Amino acid sequence: MLEMILEAINRVGNEVGNLTDHQMMIVDMMKKNSKVSAKVLSGEVGISVRKIEENISKLKKINVIERVDGTRGYWEVKY
Asked: Which of 3, 8, 16, 30 is the most exposed place for a label (fewest CB within 10 A)?
């Protein structure tokens, strides 16, 4: 898992700045399951749903992820 995180950091580090460990975990989970919910992410990452939502908001703002087709849609990871 740490190798995956390190690879992702090296790939996007210069483009989007430094992502936190939680943000990297969120992105990796979205790559594996594009329809993953904040509640599931919360359980897997080990932080509250609110913190997951804050991290998702930051990831969207820096254009790492995008929501496709609204709330019933899926996550697109852009790198």
From this structure: 3
> d(Cα 79, Cα 77) in Å, to the nearest integer?
6
Query: Which parts of 2-69 are beta strand (E)?
Result: 65-68
Residues 5, 8: Cα–Cα separation, whole Å: 5
Residue 59 is which amino acid? L
pTM of the shown model: 0.77
Domain ranges of the chain: 36-79
Q: Is residue 42 a contact partner of residue 79, using CB atoms and an 8 Å limit? A: no
Chunk the chain into consecutive blocks of 10 residues (it has 79) and report each block's average pLDDT, rounded to whole numbers: 72 66 95 96 97 96 93 90
Residue 2 CA to residue 43 CA, distance in Å, equals 19
Q: Where are the alpha helices (DSSP H) in 19-72?
A: 21-32, 38-45, 49-61
